[in-house]
UniProtKB/TrEMBL annotation:
This is LysE family transporter. One of its GO terms (cellular component) is plasma membrane. InterPro entries: LeuE-type (IPR001123). It is a multi-pass membrane protein. One of its GO terms (biological process) is amino acid transport. It holds the Pfam family LysE. The lineage of its organism: Bacteria, Pseudomonadati, Bacteroidota, Flavobacteriia, Flavobacteriales. Keywords: Cell membrane, Membrane, Transmembrane, Transmembrane helix. It is found in: Cell membrane. It comes from the Bacteria. It comes from Polaribacter haliotis.
Amino acid sequence: MLNMTALKVSLEKGTEAANKYALGVSLVIIPQIYIAVVLTKYITENPKILETLDKIGVVIFIFLSFYFYRESKKSKIKVEGLQSKKENPFLAGITLSVLNMFAIPFFCGTAVLLDSFNLFSFDFISILFFTIGSLIGTFYILYLYGKFAKTIQKKTGKLTKDINIILAILTALVAVFTLIKLIYTSLATS
């Protein structure tokens, strides 16, 4: 979702706006990484925390799906060339990154995987380097999405023109699959 939005920001507002968006996303992942790494052992020992995060995630993804669907309807009404949105891409990056429910589980999983191969320890230096590396990697991949947005659009054609509806469908699917997982888990434990 964050990658597709970087592409959208670049196509609608230009590369500089996409870079601001990438910076906003990258700044928010710093505390997400730290929280994920520090709490990894605690979270894996307490499945109720993951269940609560899943419930919150369903609500957030339903909200995002509605938001992107509404935006897709707005973009069909607007005349091309008259789009002068005053939305701040930096704040959009921060907001979407805060709402991103995949970050903490992703970084938890990555830390556990690295730890299982003895490539990571939960000391300050390891956490610091993991955080810096993830920050640089996140910013760089979003920067590349912004830089090559027009090329990606040429290669994918109409797909990127309907990006809001694609994002709406993706977030709705994530919400539905998470809800199904929660129902299945609650039925299995009953």
